[in-house]
Design goal:
Elements lengths: L2 H4 L4 H27 L6 E7 L11 E3 L5 E11 L6 E10 L13 E7 L4 E9 L4 E12 L5 E15 L1
Parallel strand pairs: 2-8
Antiparallel strand pairs: 1-3, 3-6, 4-5, 4-7, 7-8
């Protein structure tokens, strides 16, 4: 006599219970694998730009040459690379009329050197003056110091288009 019949299950119910138990076991094994052996996300950097009030909604867009041609922006960097050591960065501030590629191929007007622990944030206020009539891009580029001690572009940047009128 079969066990299923002793506990009141016929053949159809016995198969359903067996399939259900196999599904539970397989689900538990797969869930356990992903919970214990899941890949850690790779580290990343963040660079951001805020207006003079440290918000992201009142950026200058138009200036009058030699009148109101100076403005302030805040730039910030967040280190999410992981690890216990500090990461060394440079923020290059550049002004260009041609934003066709990155990194921008012009001499920086300002350079900030910083070192951040994991999850740490750095911010500073940057004062910029544009007196020549035209359309410009103010670009904050993030550079990271590699293991050889040289800086390489992280492909992270924040930019703002400014029109200078006469």
């Amino acid at each position: 006599m079969r066990i299923g019949r002793k506990i009141g299950l016929n053949d159809d119910k016995g198969y359903a219970v067996a399939v259900f138990l196999v599904l539970i076991i397989v689900s538990a094994v797969v869930a356990g694998y992903f919970l214990t052996l899941k890949a850690q996300p790779s580290g990343y950097n963040t660079i951001y730009m805020l207006d003079a009030q440290k918000t992201a909604n009142n950026y200058p867009t138009t200036l009058i040459a030699n009148q109101n041609s100076t403005f302030n922006l805040w730039v910030g960097v967040v280190n999410n690379m992981g690890g216990s050591g500090n990461q060394t960065y440079q923020v290059l501030v550049k002004v260009t009329s041609d934003l066709s590629s990155f990194p921008v191929d012009v001499t920086p007007i300002q350079t900030y050197d910083l070192s951040l622990a994991n999850t740490a944030t750095w911010q500073t206020e940057s004062t910029i003056t544009l007196n020549q009539v035209g359309s410009y891009w103010v670009v904050f580029e993030l550079w990271h110091q590699n293991s050889a001690g040289t800086f390489e572009f992280t492909n992270d940047q924040a930019s703002l288009n400014i029109q200078v009128m006469s």
